[in-house]
Amino acid sequence: MACKRTWIRDHLSRDGNHLLVEVDPDYLKDRFNHQGILADVSEKVMKAHGTTHEAAMKIILDVRPPKNATQMEKDSAEFFYGMLHARWATTTMGIKQYREKWYNGYFGVCPKLRCGSNLIPIGPDSDPGLSKVKLYCYRCNDLFHCENSELDSAYFGPNLPQMLRMMSPKEPFSRVVYFTEKIKPHYIVDEYDQLVNPKNQVKRVASSIRPQISVNGAGLGNLCRKPESGSEEL
Ligand SMILES: [Zn+2]
Q1: Is the pLDDT confidence value at 218 over 70?
Q2: How many angstroms separate the alpha carbon of residue 102 from the centre of ligand 1?
Q3: In this model, does residue 225 exceed pLDDT 50?
Q4: How far, in Å, is the centroid of ligand 1 from the Cα of 86?
């Protein structure tokens, strides 16, 4: 039997929304879960979404078709789904969904040389409008930019990786896939915290404390750390 088409599934299938999981409609309907959702937002966010909560929820729950809604109401639907998603993600069911995806490497692997552990989304800021979603490596304890998603950090929150770890105490959180030519890092961060394209990357920093390791002529292992003061670029 074909899956029923819903606003939520359409939303998740859009580019960049693959980091989200499907929130249970019953959770979205429960008004208790909406308590204080706009309590700490900025004036700008309040102005954009403060009056469209009801209309947005009707769109999310397929009570009202999006084609009959204004652009502001459609934007609010994405916003409120994201904010409720952050709460859902740390519930037992949300963690279960994230655990399965993380375990299978759905969110990608750590680009650091000799790591390759599976990554998980994290939102460094729990307030909307401050930053974008990042990806976290349990093994390196590092955050990476996600080049294929512009979702707001607040749609995930800062506690997701820790909750997953707490609720899966027997899980080996350093799943290691050693770097091979088959693993292509598609998002790496240079020493100025800028996203760089690994195809164009050249040798950068030969740190005095870390040996320079080259793979196929590119020193990818040094790109995720800021250089020590006084170190020289090659
Ligand atoms: Zn790593």
Answers
A1: no
A2: 14
A3: no
A4: 24
